[in-house]
Amino acid sequence: MNETRYDWLGDRWVIFAPNRILRPDNYRDPSRPKPNLTSLAPTDRITDEQCPFCSGHEQQTPPPTLVLKTPSAHDWSVRVVPNKFPAFDSANESPLCTAPHCTSTNNSELFLRKQTRGGHEVIIEAPNHIQSITQLPTEHAALIFEAYQERLRYWRSVHAMRYAVVFKNNGADAGASLVHAHSQLICTDFLPTDVLKTQLRSNEYFQSHRRCYACDVLEKEIQASQRIVAQTDSFVALCPFASRLPYSVSILPIEHQSAFEECSPCQLVELARLVQWTLRSIECEHPQTAYNYVLQTAPLDAHNPAAFHWRLKVLPRLIKVAGFEWSSDCYINTVLPEEAAKALGRHIPTGLSEKSLSQSAIA
Q1: How confident is the model at residue 41 (pLDDT cuts 50, 70, 90)?
Q2: Which end of the chain, N or C, is surrounded by fewer C-beta atoms within 10 Å?
């Protein structure tokens, strides 16, 4: 059973999941070839005989919790399955503890520990052995975001779940273990410290200004246009003013939305196109660069929907986080966001809009 321990000085919980060391790792095995999968066209029907995510290998994963398909798909387009090596014990297998610290009687104040419950799922993004969603037709990519929505809605309905995050690790330097395009969803019965801090800061700003912080930032950013990478009818992609990592991009809805699940089907298609173009611009500017993206939606428990604004953050792994950052949690960024936005914007079609996105070829 996995365990969570409390770092009192840092005011954070640390998750211990020894079972995750057993998960397969394409990048750790030097005998396996690592082809440049991003050069393949989306119509190339390729599989890897050792890949558990490829079509035909469905028996190597747990039974799916969700299956979606495009009208032209032979079998499936997107599958969501429980992670075989989860970070948390399943919320559906045993009763949840709802106490804030859930500590046993033999814990001292200095050595708090608890058994946490949650969910850990894998979103397999395509039946073919591809590495990037930029290789997919936009219609297919939109299904990935629909899968995020459906599973987030499900976990909001599970008793005592407080936090959920969707994330993608693409490339070894971003923490990926399998090459096949996939993302993950983790939910927990506690709010991580940084998430709670962001929630409190958002609420403080709203109480002082009666406006959402992100809405005010977006209004100024769109007016200035110095850090905008691309903009569509409903979304904007920008390099944040105080980016911690070079070429970081945040994608946000222009109109206020608290939870990602509020996006309409049409907006999901628009978002999928913009995410594809954003990732494509990073792939063009820095070929073969690993990256993470993180979908930050409203917490699952009580929150002020007027104060929280969801976003998708793309974090290229162009530098190593080193001693100063680890010692201080203060980052040194080597690229100004204005320069990053200009460089990435060169790879975006001129006059980008929902209409021009739909007419532009992705991959």
Answers
A1: very low
A2: N
Residue 325, helix vs strand vs coil:
helix
- The CA distance from 154 to 176, in Å, is 25
Q: In angstroms, how far is the first alpha carbon of the chain from the final one?
A: 43
Rounded to whole angstroms, the Cα distance separating 297 from 288 reads 28
Residues 6+ apart with CB under 8 A from 325: 331, 332
Q: Using the predicted structure, report yes or no on whether residue 8 has a pLDDT greater than 70.
A: yes
Q: What is the CA radius of gyration of the chain?
A: 20
Burial of residue 184 (CB within 10 Å: 0-12, 13-18, 19+) is middle
- State the average pLDDT over residues 179-204: 94
Write the CATH number for 352. Answer: 3.30.428.10
Tracing tokens 């330097």 back to the chain, one arrives at 173
Q: Is residue 43 part of a domain?
A: no
Residue 300 carries which DSSP code? S
The CA-atom distances, in angstroms, between 130 and each of 54, 239, 288 are 9, 27, 14
Domain count, the chain: 1
Compute CA distances 345 → 245, 280, 282, 338, 357, whole Å: 17, 11, 10, 10, 14
**Is 119 in contact with 93 (CB distance < 8 Å)?**
no
Task: Fill in the DSSP letter of residue 58.
Answer: G
- β-bridge mates for residue 197, sequence order: none
Q: Are strands 249-253 and 311-316 parallel, antiparallel or unpaired?
A: antiparallel
| Residue 39 in domain | no
Residue with tokens 């999968």: 37
Residue 104 lies in a domain: no
Range of the domain at 341: 211-289+301-359
CA dist., res. 316 & res. 104, Å (int) = 41
**Cα–Cα dist 362/277, whole Å:** 7
Q: Which amino acid makes up residue 253? A: P
Residue 322 belongs to a domain: yes
pLDDT value of position 46: 55
* Type and span of the H or E element at 222: helix 213-224
| 347 has pLDDT over 70 | yes
Res 34: pLDDT:
46
SS3 call for 352:
coil
Q: Classify residue 310 by its DSSP letter.
A: -
